[in-house]
Protein 1
Amino acid sequence: MTTTSATADRSTGPWATALDQLTSACRVLGYDEGLQAMLATPRREMNVAIPLRCDDGRKMILRGYRVQHNISRGPGKGGLRFHQDVDLDEVRALAMWMTWKCAIADLPYGGAKGGVTIDPLQHTRGELERVTRRYTSEILPIIGPERDIMAPDMGTGEDTMAWIMDTYSVNQGYTIPGVVTGKPIAVGGSLGRTTATSAGVVHVTKAALADAGLGLADVRIAIQGFGKVGSHAASIFAAGGARVVAVSDMYGGVHNPDGLDLPALVAHVAATGSVVGFERAEPVDNVALLALDADVLVPAALEGVLTEETAPTVQARWVVEGANGPTTGPADKILVDKGVTIVPDILANAGGVVVSYFEWVQANQAYWWTEREIDDKLEHRMLTAYRDVADLSRRENLTLRDAALVIGVQRVAQAHQIRGLYP
């Protein structure tokens, strides 16, 4: 089987990292080149132009993408990212990681992802709504509750999902809550969805620490990123007894070796919009945070922050990837050689898609679960996934990343093989 241009692109960046990871997993599994090419090649890609009329009358053209990497196990599932640096290769990589993530969590989904090249901080709410609705209209033929279900990601939130749901529903002629997840509760969202990714990060961190005979009260944690994932994770970690010694956002970071006062910090961020300037800590930048004296490092911001330059400085014993793709291939090898245990993104941050699945199920059934039910089901799913990965890691002497990839890739490949090729 010949590979497409997508699979042949070996440039640096998240797509190259994703392809290299797949190659490693296929090597362990003994898959031939044809099967690997099938697993590497996105099933469907859409690249659309999004014209925007700004509030001041200016007109501009944005680019939008939706990639459905694999749908052998079920409809596509994946977030929508608004960021000025979004490009097709990044979306491809994120879609592939979603495929493995859904399989590791044993969800009946394939992997998908979307993106629009826009800096949401530079646009009004009205402009963002118009961009969202136009983007949705352009990709309408390939999305739906049985085809491809979107969710929030960087630069988007529950309002974005409500606009997508409304645009899709208006075009279909009736209300369809299941086309997106991460919606406001008032229009069919699920309890527990806002903190799901963060709670999942905490669950797998606790499981990894338990394997070493430790608990949250025994460790100091540094978190890069104080957005949707990092902020909630910090609060949950602190409530569980851990010392969160540093956090950062896009503007900078703060550090206190005795532990940050999280409620006060959250109040400071609510008042100022950033962790910068918090009086009960010393300033630290995003790169220096990675090298702080901490037991657990949680990169929960952008991909590619742990590189050949930054990985050697890491002092943490555990790296728990709250973000997608925060560790490059060379950095991964450096950290492993240093004895660092990496809980990979496709396992560590799967809590979001797990509770998205719960929201989708509830929407399809029109029956809603309690927050306690959501929390219990999330914990069970995350710990089951962690045990599957950790057991294979020990049994086959693999890193947690390699074990997770092997499980995810194998489950997707089995679906391919069982379904067969058509025609």
Note: Confidence is low (pLDDT under 50) at residues 1-10.
Protein 2
Amino acid sequence: MTQKTLRLSDPDLTVTYRDNGRSEPLVLIHGVGMQSAAWEPQIAALSGAHRVIALDLPGHGGSDPLPEGSDLPDFVAWLHAVVRALDLGAVNLAGHSMGALIAAGFAASFPDLVRRVAFLNGVYRRDAPSRHAVQARAREIRAGQVDLDTPLARWFGETPADLAAKAQVAEWLGAVDASGYATAYTAFANGDATYADRLPRIACPLLAMTGDGDPNSTPAMATAMASLAGQGSAIIIKGHRHMMNLTAACEVNAHLLTWLKQPTTQKELQ
């Protein structure tokens, strides 16, 4: 995979990303604690028909962090700056977990720049116990108390595919910048409702996909998000959890290819 570096002028930050293939662009945004390499199965499967650009989130991989205290709209503004700097025009956009929140905010805010949008293991309006739990974890991470075992146990089962992916994900989590991780996780913890009321503004084809065993990005959330969009559809991957793009890569890729073939027109909403 070809890795590149982009220097933004506003904000003044360096962004690292993987850029493979040609034709209509597909931008991929990973989740908190991950990096662009987490999209390797999707890059391999989709770059034959698309220019696939997998970004390192701020404070992840080689990308500079956003300032401490940045919230979800700041990450959306960062993505807008990247898309403009790369002169991509309208893109296909897929995000995983935190990346799905950013993708939702971007699609709702800049509909003229989005051909299609996909949310993988996205969150939507957590219930009160879930919200309190994730916000408590954000406070712990900001205080330097980083527990990697708990999310890994929640994200993976015991199949060979799960265990192989778990080892790689543990390595990425262990390498992430502590400050960048804390900033992004806090934005993730507080962002599940930030753009929720604006999802009906998304007129392009929207795919919401999650695993039936994901307790935090639930099938009910995926179904709810898809129902709000004019061209929304929900896919539930049976037998998989939060990192299904790795543990069920072939199935996820097949659904993404179908989504990428859906007809679309660009129309800015007023």
Note: The mean pLDDT is 95.
